[in-house]
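Suppose a colleague, Dr. K., hands you the sequence of a protein chain of 105 amino acids and asks what its three-dimensional shape might be. Before reaching for any lab equipment, you can write down a predicted structure in token form. Begin with the sequence itself:
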Amino acid sequence: MLARVKSEFVPVSGDCENYKGPIGVEGHIDGEIDVLIEAKRVLRFRAYAEGQAWGANSNTWHQPPGRFPLVIAIIEADDRVSRVLGPVWAGYGADYRTPELPAGK
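The predicted structure, expressed as tokens, is then:
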């Protein structure tokens, strides 16, 4: 089954805040997902998002003042590493930089 993904994303009930102050993101995402429903398997996923972000968090260093551009591209992953490690920002820790893979997987 092939489905088209298209949506706007906006802050929920105003800006969020963390220990560094207000943060947020808004924009749109557009993509396609192809799913084999019987096997509960994603065959193909492609999405592209554009928007604006603001504020600082642990993943944003030296962000400019005010709003700044944000671009995200997403694809499916079905390699040995992605089957062992969950989806997280790649700089999260040593497990993501140098994963140890079980033999035979």
